[in-house]
Amino acid sequence: MSLQLYDYAASANCYKVRLLLAQLRQSYERIPVDIFAGDTLTDEFHEINPARSTPVLAINGGSYLQESAAILVYLAEGTEFLAAAPLERARTIRWLIIEQTDVMPMIGGLRFRLQTGRLQPDDDEAVRRREGGEEVLALLNEHLAGRDFLVGANYSIADIAVYAYTHVAPEAGYDLSEYPAVASWLRRVESRPRFINDLAPYPANARPGQGVSVYG
Amino acid sequence: MSLQLYDYAASANCYKVRLLLAQLRQSYERIPVDIFAGDTLTDEFHEINPARSTPVLAINGGSYLQESAAILVYLAEGTEFLAAAPLERARTIRWLIIEQTDVMPMIGGLRFRLQTGRLQPDDDEAVRRREGGEEVLALLNEHLAGRDFLVGANYSIADIAVYAYTHVAPEAGYDLSEYPAVASWLRRVESRPRFINDLAPYPANARPGQGVSVYG
Prior knowledge:
The structure is a homodimer of 216-residue chains.
Chain A: E1 3-7, H1 12-23, E2 29-32, H2 43-48, E3 56-59, E4 63-66, H3 68-76, H4 86-115, H5 124-144, H6 157-166, H7 180-190
Parallel strand pairs in A: 1-2
Antiparallel strand pairs in A: 1-3, 3-4
Helix pairs in contact in A: 1-3, 1-6, 4-5, 4-6, 5-7
């Protein structure tokens, strides 16, 4: 299987996929996408992903797969990172959904906007996202109390997905000492074999007025 | 397998599950949850779903499964409604994600707020959701042009999930004649064997000031 990853180094959605690929010892070609240089706005990128988001996985040079959660499921199929039992599989999907509807837009969305100067901490929109992030951190903390990992007994793509934006929550102003079960779970994820963290900081062109307008 | 569905008749997230269960000819007990009477705010419901959302599937009286997309995956496993091939399975997950991150909050969220008097069409928040809904309708329309169904050649839980809030888009002010491939796909979904549509209108207590405050 030949894999190419259309990848933005500062996107935790992309980092999820890089982490799983490292833990699978799966080789791949990384194709950098500079979002704020306009790389996702081209006709060529439209052919790869009409939703113009990253990551995108190209499989054997012909098939494209979009959405980080779908890529994780595809790569983890048949491995220790995705359970075979139907109920555990479905619970994995549950956390992949919650990650994309709550963890990513609230925690990740707030961090992006604060770090790139799109919002100030007291702005209404920042407060709305901070409160949404606190809700999902409380949900995670309750779920992880007494559990090692999010689904069943084993580390899975659910943990990889939720880890990606949760581990940088302090950079958005969240105090993870208020969520001790989350904090200790983050350390467990980081102690897994072949764990990597190569999430890059936002580059200068991610600030409004520096690069192309993609996210306002 | 004994199934109970914690179910809100006016939620299209719940309707998805009812539609799949009907098409699977799977019997189940429906347990009505009156969201705006406070049924999801009780300690008892917290044990069933700490995120306090519907639907929730109870399996054999003991295991709870939350999130409509996860329930669809669980019920469809091994049936014609979820492909066995890894890439088609992953593409199904892709659409389940897009449904929950874009279709539901934009189209469904706008419809709910307009129909229950939480927003007026010209409010900033209504405009933001309308534009987000137009983007995802354009994405769907492009994808469905030349395709019968969302994933591969066959009707699947991807279609069920996206149908749920898309078919009521006109009630949120969207003109589906601008998205002809979406409109004809809706008719194809409706012509599938054992198709049902029992989505209920929002009851009087869903209006602010009438029932408990759940969604502002």
